[in-house]
Amino acid sequence: MTVATAADAPGRDLAAMPAARPRGGLFRKxxxxxxxxxxxxxxxSGALEIWFGYREQMxxxxxxxxxxxxxxxxxIEQFAVSIQDQLxxxxxxxxxxxxxxxxxxxxxxxxxxxxxxxTAAGMNRLVAGLAARAVAIARRQEIQAHRFDAVRxxxxxxxxxxxxxxxxxxxEQFRVSTLAMEVIGSRRDLSGEPKFREAIDxxxxxxxxxxxxxSEPYMTIAVGGLRRVNGVAIAEVNLKxxxxxxxxxxxxxxxxxxxxxxxxxxxxxxxxxLVLRNLDLSALPQVRAAIDGATPPEDARDLxxxxxxxxxxxxxxxxxxxxVELPISEALAPVYLSLARTGGxxxxxxxxxxxxxxxxxxxxxxxxxxxxxxxxxxGRGDLTHRIDVRTGDELEALADEFNDMAGxxxxxxxxxxxxxxxxxxxxxRSVEELVALGEVSQALNSTLDVEAVLTTIVAKAVQLSSARxxxxxxxxxxxxxxRLIASFGSTDELxxxxxxxxIRRGETAIGIATLERRPTQIADLETLPPSxxxxxxxxxGFRSLLALPLLRGDRxxxxxxxxxxxxxxxxxxxxxxLETLASQSAIAIRNAQLFADLAEQGRQLSLASxxxxxxxxxxxxxxxTPLNAILGxxxxxxxxxxxxxSPRTRQVVERLQANGVxxxxxxxxxxxxxxxEAGQLTLTLGDYDLxxxxxxxxxxxxxxxxxxxxxxxxxxxxxLPPGRGDERRLRQVLLNLVGNAIKxxxxxxxxxxxxxxxxxxxxxxxxxxxxxxEADRERIFLEFQQGGSARGGTGLGLAISQRIVALHGxxxxxxxxxxxxxxxxxxxxxxxxxxxxx
Length: 838
Known about the structure:
Blueprint: H1 8-16, H2 20-88, H3 98-102, H4 106-114, H5 120-156, E1 160-166, E2 172-177, E3 183-184, H6 194-202, E4 204-206, E5 210-212, E6 216-224, E7 232-238, H7 243-247, E8 256-260, E9 266-268, H8 272-276, H9 285-291, E10 308-315, E11 320-327, H10 328-331, H11 333-362, H12 365-379, H13 394-446, H14 450-464, E12 469-476, E13 481-488, H15 492-501, H16 508-516, E14 520-522, H17 532-539, E15 544-552, E16 555-564, H18 572-638, H19 647-677, E17 686-688, H20 690-707, E18 711-715, E19 723-725, H21 727-744, E20 749-757, E21 760-767, H22 797-807, E22 811-815, E23 822-828, H23 833-837
Parallel strand pairs: 18-20
Antiparallel strand pairs: 1-2, 1-7, 2-3, 4-6, 5-6, 6-7, 8-9, 8-11, 10-11, 12-13, 12-16, 14-15, 15-16, 17-19, 20-21, 21-23, 22-23
Helix pairs in contact: 2-11, 12-13, 13-14, 13-18, 14-18, 15-17, 18-19, 19-22, 20-21, 21-22
């Protein structure tokens, strides 16, 4: 039997684990694999980057240098061309010849030939002498003109130090100089020199570079005239003026540009001392290649033997070469920097590769375990949990998918909760605003107390704007000042101080808002200059305010103001909401003004109506007393109490009695109207027989109808129920209607028709007269109004009749008819007692 010790057991367990050897091999494999991949990628990409960067840098540098060289060559060429153009102006005038000089003497010569005193030989000698004299004079004048142009050119072109003018025969006529004495008429023969011949033949000559006094470079430029008779201008040009053109070419930090002539001699250089040494640069590889017309070599060197990158450009007219050079060390600085960066990245990549291999080998199982645990946590509903896997492979992609899924679910839940919260908050605010507007509308509709309404509006404005206090200021149009008529949240002391300020239009936010008719706010009162209003509000603890004008049409009624303790602007939503409350405030103020005006007008009308009714009642009583006496005495006289009357006297008394009765009726109408208006006319209810009332009215008006030859017809049903009402007043209504019908009808009939409709009587009074005009139908029931064919009367009958019928609970109206007029009286059969009391 084999006995295993405690020390052996662990050894056997470890040896039995199948993952031990794969783990070690996987560790080495991943380390080596990552190191090789990253090193290869970095080395390859770095080499490609360095190569392409080197080529791009060199090509870009060559392009830039070529552009700079071409630009410098162009400027130098323009320098020479400009001097050539300036010289060309000095040879525009031709030199005089014998023929041209003798033209002014042509008349003299003709006169000499015609004279008998001169022989042919004498004439020729005389003409030759005159010609020589003319040529000499013309030449002196022309030399002076050319000399003046030359001197002016020397003063204008600083680069020209000496200028000679040579005639067409090659003789120097004068020479002016800034460095030597002026020479006139030297007659130096230059006809055999190249500068004269080339200028005459080709128009221009550019000489080689030479050094005057072994110091500064010069060159000769000669320009011939357009015609050979104009001569040649020869200038000596100082080339130091092109130094600035070369010094202005910037090539990197230490690059330079310089110019050499066709032989390689240095003409211009940023270091002037090199030019003054008359250096020959033809030994430089790039200069020799350029002189031979070849491409500059890659092994170009500068004067100090340093490697440079160079390009050149030619100046065709002068044959010069412009070189632009940059030290190779500066040119390849970006490439060296890229190389150092690549080496650093390679080292860093090796370190990262080793670390990545170690981490990957150690964490192969960890990510899978974390995936399982994380998935379980997310599955239980914890959407905020995230699976942290940093493997960079499918495991990390799977973990990212889990995380994205959880994140989207969490975002959906949070977004939904946020939207629900925002919507709930918006709805709560909307409900709050609607409740506030509802309370304001209720206050407007339920009370005429403008102060209570405005106080409610201000309170809601303060609440909805998150302010501390507010108020409504009414504009006094007489004084142009504002008065605080309602406030909320303000102390009594602040209210007194604000009212004491007497704010005017155009002053403070209140005055500006009402003047400009738009909301005005002040975000911070402390930014305003000191003023009484500002000081009062800041002392009250306020920092910002909003003022809204109260407008009603074109009128400004005042302003609604809210004040906050915190600085800051009010939101546009708050301003729009408070504009609604400002409109409600304007309505309340306007309604209060209208109610006050209406109450005052009603009081005045009531007082005037009472005075009128009292006057009419008093006058009616005063008139009836003497009129009754007159009628009584007339009755006694007709009864022969005072003795028999003569027929004529009786006729007069009867007429007097009839007119008195008519006048008494008019007075009774006025008295009835005054009683109705004063509310003193009441009905005396009793039982009545409508048929008897109609017959009595017909009997009373039948003599009037007969007198006008009219047929008076009465249409009554066989049986009518007894009515209850004021019989006397109903008879008065019918008498008025029938009397009007008879009065306005000239021929035909007048008809009274009665019928029962349920619990009401309908009485129609119709005639065959002209009817009522369309324009009069709306006003015939008004007081003191009659139809267009009125024939006397006060115009009160229909108005009184309508009110009597209305007291019975009925109505009277004009019926539409094709011919004549018809009025219908509609009254209850039984009038209620409360109507009579009313």
